[in-house]
Amino acid sequence: MFTKIVVHRVGNKINGESLILSQEELQLDEGTVEMLENYFLGSFKTEETYQFYSDSYLVNNPVFSSVSEIFDDKAKFLWEAENIAKHLFEAAENPRVQGGELFIVFFEDERESEERVDKIGIFKTEKRESFLKIFPKNESFEIEKDQGISLSKIDKAALIYNNNKESGYVLSVVDNNKNGDMYYWFEDFLKVKQRDDEYFHTQEALMVYKDYIVKQLPQEFEVSKADQADFLNKSINFFKEKEEFKLDEFAAEVLGDEHVIESFNNFKTDYEQDMQINIAEEFPISEAAVKKTQRHFKSIIKLDKNFHIYIHGDRKMLEQGQDEKGKYYMLYFDKEV
Question: What is the mean pLDDT of residues 318-330?
C-alpha cells in the first residue's frame, strides 16, 4: 500500500499551458487509498520490463536521479516529486501532447525481510470523460453533467522498483494515450529502454525468426506458403515446449537443412547490427513473452479473395497441385469438428 502521494498539474508549455505544483502531500482515507492503488497498479498487464539509461552517465537522467534521492531518503519525496513534474513539463515538445494530473506515489514494502522492495509510481491522467450526477430534489430528481477522470485505465504510468540501481533500476512502463507522440513518455521524459532479460531475448528471437521466414527465406530458397506456415508453427511450438532456448538445438529441430541454418545465422547477425541489439544464443524461455508474441505467428494462406487457410499443425496433411481448373490445395483430416 502506498504511504506517500502528491499530485501536480502539468500542462503543455507549447500550447501556453501552465505547471501548477502542489506544496503538500494528499491526505486520503483508507477507502480512497485502496481505490487509487487498484487504479494505479491495474495498468501493468505485461512482464516486459525497462531500465533507465543516459547518453553519458546515469545520474544525468533526471527521473533516475530524483527517484534515487527518494529511495535514499523519503524526506526528499516532496522536493524530488516537484523536480519530476518540472522535468515532465519541459519534456513536452509536441502540441498534441495533452496536459493532465501527475501523481507521484511512494509504495512502501511492509515485509520485514531481504525481499523487501519499495517502489515509486509516476502516473499521468490526460483524458476526461463525461458523467452524470443525480440529486434528489423535492419529489423528483435533478441531473447535472460533469467531467472527470475515468478509473478504468490510466493514460501513462511507470513503476520503479528499488533494485538493480547500478544498471538503471527495474521499471514497468505503459502508455495508453500516445497523443500522436510515441516518444514523449518513454524517451523524452523517462528515457528508458527494454531490459536485457529472458523476456527480451524470447521476444526478439521469435521476431527475428518470423522476419526471416516471411522475408528472407523465400528470396533464397524455393518454399511455398504452406512450407512457411509449417516453419512458423514448428518455431512457436518449440518455444512453448522448451524451458530453455539453445540456438543449435533450435536450428536442428526447426530449420533442419544446413543451408537454411547458415542463411538464418547470417540474417540474425545482420538483424542484430541493424537493430543495435544482441540476442543471446542460450537463455531461459519466457512463457509470458511467447504468449504475447505468438499472436504475430498466424499461419494463414490467403487464396485470392475467396479463401483463407489457417494451418495449425501437420504440414503433411496439406498438398498443393494444379489441374485444368487451376491451382488447388488438398486438405486431409480425421474428423470434422
Answer: 76
CA distance 325 to 303: 15
Residue 80 near residue 67 (C-beta atoms within 8 A): yes
Rounded-to-integer distance, Cα 25 and Cα 141, Å? 37
Q: Is the pLDDT of residue 297 over 70?
A: no
User: Stretch 123-132: mean pLDDT, rounded?
Assistant: 87
H-run or E-run covering 82: helix 77-91
Q: For cell 506456415, name the residue.
A: 229
- Measured in residues, the chain has a length of 337
pTM for this prediction: 0.78
What does 165-234 look like in DSSP terms, one character per residue? GGGT-EEEEEES--TT-SSIIIIIII-EEE-SSHHHHHHHHHHHHHHIIIIIHHHHS---HHHHHHHHHH
Reduced to 3 states (helix: H, G, I; strand: E, B; else coil), residue 154 is coil
SS3 138: coil
C-alpha cell at 153: 485505465
Q: In sequence order, which residues have a C-beta less than 8 Å from that of residue 84 and are 6 or more positions away?
A: 62, 63, 66, 67, 102, 104, 122
Q: Residues with Cβ < 8 Å from 180, sequence gap 6 or more? A: 94, 96
- Residue-wise pLDDT for 231-278, tens only, equals 888 888 899 999 999 999 999 998 888 999 999 999 999 999 998 888
Q: CA-to-CA distance for 158 and 77, rounded, in angstroms?
A: 16
Residue with cell 543451408: 259
Amino acid identity, residue 273?
A: Q
Q: How many angstroms separate the Cα of 76 from the Cα of each of 61, 101, 124, 288?
A: 18, 21, 21, 37
Kindly report the number of other CB atoms within 10 A of residue 201's CB atom: 22
Sequence-separated (6 or more) residues with CB below 8 Å from residue 285: 198, 202, 239, 242, 243, 244, 245
Q: Under 8 Å CB-to-CB from 143, ≥6 apart: which residues?
A: 132, 133, 134, 135
Which residues, other chains included, contact 72 with Cβ-Cβ below 8 Å and sequence gap of 6+? none
Q: Which three cell numbers stand for residue 270?
A: 545482420
Q: Rounded to an integer, what is the distance from CA 42 to the centroid of its chain?
A: 14
Phi-psi category of 43—alpha, beta or left, where left has phi over 0 and alpha has psi -120 to 50? alpha
Q: Is the pLDDT of residue 116 over 90?
A: no
